[in-house]
Design goal:
It comes from Ponticaulis profundi. There is one protein chain. The chain has 361 residues and is α/β, with parallel strands linked by helices. It folds into two domains: 220 residues, Alanine racemase (TIM Barrel); 96 residues, Lyase, Ornithine Decarboxylase, Chain A, domain 1, CATH 2.40.37.10. The protein contains ten helices and 17 strands. Helix 5 packs across helix 6 and helix 6 runs parallel beside helix 7. The longest helix has 17 residues.
Length: 361
């Protein structure tokens, strides 16, 4: 996210693997969006001088207290007065807090809407801003446009909504957090170039009624790690256009099942070349649950056979962290490869010269 005109926090929930955290830390990222005590423990162990912000809007009292007194967390997200009271109580009414109030916004334009669960209305945000401003060190507003949001203009719309709240509340806001939701390239889901998102956000932020010192944050998860992993699955049975494999709905293919997303695939065969003719397949996972089915369609050589290996790519986000031990499955061997990602939104992340940009519109 080097093109983003602000500070990037990595949303650890997208992939909490040790190698992911160490790679991002090694690349210079020093701010992590954590949502649980386990994530705080991981970041504290692997990235000792990093800053953590507890961006889950609903937290247990025990987690808040541990975050503040054990892990040194000073930034907390919230979306209601009850959560505000919990944070103040469990931090013993600390004055060195940064509170980020999360707005309820439409997720139109997102492939996976997540609105309806979290977020304060404009009236609730105004109340929270006015309560918090006199007693905390810094105050912010945030939103989440929905996962895999394909429309750069969505961020502009949400920033305008926050601008109206700030004006009506009549208080200074120090931080605008535009959330995650940045899209990656999946089959049939090709987003605009990444620079369009950064440009839209920068222009919207510059128009907001903010003091000169105000800062801009984002908290991507999927966009930073989706390209970083594939899973190699074993074909255990071929039945018509259905392949029975050793991964599925209760493993790394959670999104493929529950969101009905397709992922890039290719066949790997140890002896001989597979057919060049492709056929549409669906995949059944290894558990005894009939819901363990990945509809696809996945286009693979028509002569797929037992013993073949299928590589399913772009699973770096929400793959590893969704694995379960249901029916005794979920074990995997981890290996590292040096080849390029299957597809990358960062190949054209930088904004081209204006003449080139206009020529391509």
């Amino acid at each position: 996210m080097s093109e983003f005109p602000g500070e990037t926090l990595y949303a650890v929930k997208a992939n909490p693997s040790k190698w992911v955290l160490e790679t991002l830390y090694g690349a210079g990222l020093r701010h992590f969006d954590v949502a649980s005590e386990n994530e705080m423990t991981l970041v504290a162990e692997l990235c000792p001088d990093a800053t953590m912000s507890f961006m889950h809007p609903v937290k247990s009292r025990h987690a808040i207290r541990r975050a503040y007194f054990e892990f040194g967390v000073r930034t907390f997200s919230l979306d209601c007065e009850a959560e505000f009271d919990k944070i103040m109580d469990e931090t013993e009414h600390a004055r060195d807090l940064t509170l980020i109030i999360r707005a309820a916004v439409s997720n139109q334009g997102a492939e996976l809407p997540i609105d309806g669960k979290f977020g304060a209305s404009p009236a609730q945000m105004i109340t929270l801003l006015r309560r918090a401003r006199p007693i905390v060190e810094e105050l912010g507003l945030s939103f989440h446009p929905g996962s895999q949001c394909m429309d750069p203009y969505a961020w502009s719309v949400h920033c305008e909504q926050l601008s109206r709240v700030i004006t009506d509340a009549g208080v200074d806001v120090d931080i605008i957090d535009v959330g995650g939701g940045f899209p990656v390239s999946y089959p049939g889901k090709e987003p605009p170039p990444m620079f369009r998102f950064a440009s839209a956000i920068k222009r919207a932020f510059d128009r907001m009624p903010l003091p000169p010192h105000a800062r801009l944050w984002c908290e991507p998860g999927r966009a930073l790690v989706a390209e970083g992993s594939s899973v190699l699955t074993h074909v255990d049975l071929v039945r018509g256009n259905t392949l029975y494999i050793n991964d599925g709905a209760f493993g790394t293919l959670y999104d493929a099942v529950h969101c009905k997303w397709t992922y890039p695939t290719r066949l790997i065969r140890q002896d001989g070349e597979p057919s060049s003719r492709l056929k549409a397949f669906r995949l059944f996972g290894p558990t005894c649950d009939s819901a363990d089915m990945v509809p696809g369609p996945f286009f693979l050589p028509e002569d797929v056979r037992e013993g073949d290996v299928i590589e399913i790519g772009m699973l770096g986000a929400y793959g590893v962290c969704m694995q379960t031990q249901f029916n005794g499955y979920g074990q995997a061997i981890e290996a590292f490869a040096a080849d390029s990602p299957w597809a990358s939104v960062f190949d054209n992340a930088a904004e081209p010269a204006k003449a080139d940009w206009y020529a391509n519109i």
